[in-house]
Write a structure and sequence with these properties.
440 residues, mainly alpha, Growth Hormone, Chain: A, globular
């Protein structure tokens, strides 16, 4: 029986070949970690809705919280350097513990400002996972299988998130104050993913990061010297700028994500307000649209999109995904007036469009940068990629909220759709002009 299970595993993930032991172990643990990440993701996506509904936060505070989330991605550059300098195992363990177990304090967050303070700590550590994950993908997975493996991980993560969302929506509809005990549970379970990443094996012959998991860095006053502290922030930025300047295809790739990201970030503070103030949706309806439907689409299409990325390249997948994503804000803008949809149906249909498009964006955003990275630089390239989220994350939510206050919801949605179309067209131009030796 064990032999037949092993054979089926090899056929599904390794085309019938006997896999490298490190690659096989990494995949098994990664897929298990996606269960923990799915529970975490379901709770994470509901943060702004809990602020708006359970804590009656105003639009300004919701926008501030969303901006904190995205702006904190700038710290990916520093996290990437710290992962190399201090060691992946320890940084993931202590960073994961601090960024997720902090939700144990949720019972004391009885006002919106205090909840935002806790979210601030969560967001500071959020960008840590992405460069670590990409470094592992480049080191432990063969280039021809990375997209496929990520797609199957997305399937596990988003099925878990979808099921979790049903439970969270029901509990929060029963009592909006239930977030005070829900989030400590979500935080502890969510810590399982960075813990698993921290314990993954290194490829044969690697001598990096052999310290014990719980070993702390030795205290040193030299590290607190103003020049050293300044260097810890300046050096990663200098390295990132050098990478962007030297690698033109990667620079263009990031420019396209800036266009798409402006649309995404503009919608982040606006959609929670639209759902609560305009559509008057309950938690179960919000959870079903924002997490269940969105996660189901990404889960079902994730493996397919991962294979497409491996076969056709991330840039070509971006052409399709960015273009389809324009249908998400357009449905929110015109679903009621032109399509005759009710409030809940508008939300469900819009996030159905979102789910199809984001199944591709999810793959290219998380592991697409590896296609441009030299050997051993996957973590660095993803640090740069995630840090770019921080740049648009400062401007996008504030722009979306400003357009909302000056004009209205429909104008925000139409402008966001325009950015998605521009990103798709620019991606098509990038693919046509990339050199013949395209990255694989």
């Amino acid at each position: 029986m064990f032999a037949s299970i092993t054979s089926a595993w090899n056929r599904t993930y390794f085309d019938g070949r006997t896999p490298d032991p490190v690659e096989s172990v990494t995949l098994r643990r990664y897929l298990l970690g996606m269960v923990f990440q799915g529970v975490w993701w379901a709770g994470y996506l509901l943060f702004p809705f809990v602020l708006a509904k359970s804590l009656q936060a105003g639009g300004g505070l919701v926008t501030a919280a969303v901006t904190m989330d995205t702006a904190a991605m700038l710290l990916a550059l520093s996290w990437g350097h710290l992962l190399v300098r201090v060691g992946r195992r320890r940084v993931l363990f202590w960073g994961g513990l601090g960024g997720r177990a902090i939700l144990l304090l949720a019972p004391f967050a009885v006002t919106a400002p205090w909840f935002v303070v806790i979210l601030g700590v969560v967001y500071v550590f959020a960008a840590l996972v992405y460069p670590a994950q990409n470094s592992i993908f480049q080191e432990n997975f063969h280039s021809s299988r990375r997209g496929r493996f990520f797609g199957h991980g997305a399937l596990v993560q988003h099925v878990t998130a979808a099921l979790t969302s049903l439970v969270l929506g029901m509990l929060l509809d029963r009592d909006p104050a239930n977030y005070r005990w829900i989030y400590p549970v979500v935080g502890v379970i969510g810590f399982g993913y960075p813990l698993i990443l921290a314990t993954l094996p290194r490829p044969a012959g690697s001598t990096r990061d052999v310290r014990r998991l719980l070993e702390l860095p030795r205290p040193s006053l030299q590290g607190l010297a103003p020049r050293r502290l300044l260097a810890s922030f300046v050096d990663p930025v200098r390295d990132a700028l050098a990478t962007i300047h030297a690698d033109k295809p990667f620079r263009w790739f990031e420019g396209n994500f800036m266009l798409y990201g402006m649309a995404f970030m503009m919608l982040n503070p606006v959609v929670p307000l639209f759902f609560t103030d305009e559509l008057n949706l309950g938690y179960e309806q919000i959870s079903s649209a924002r997490v269940l439907i969105a996660s189901a689409g990404v889960a079902l299409l994730g493996p397919l999109m991962g294979r497409w990325m491996d076969r056709f390249h991330p840039v070509r997948l971006c052409v399709l995904s960015f273009g389809l994503l324009a249908l998400y804000p357009l449905t929110l803008a015109f679903g009621g007036s032109l399509m005759g949809l009710g409030p809940a149906a508008t939300a469900y249909f819009a996030f159905g469009m979102y789910a199809v498009a984001m199944s591709g964006v999810n793959v290219t955003w998380n592991v697409g940068s590896i296609a441009f990275a030299p050997e051993g630089e996957g973590g660095h390239y993803q640090s740069v990629h995630v840090a770019m989220v921080g740049l648009r994350g400062v401007v996008g939510p504030l722009t979306g909220y400003a357009v909302l206050r000056l004009f209205g919801y429909r104008e925000v949605f139409v402008i966001a759709a325009g950015f998605c179309v521009l990103a798709s067209v620019s991606s098509a131009l990038l693919w046509r002009r990339m050199p013949s030796g395209r990255p694989s």
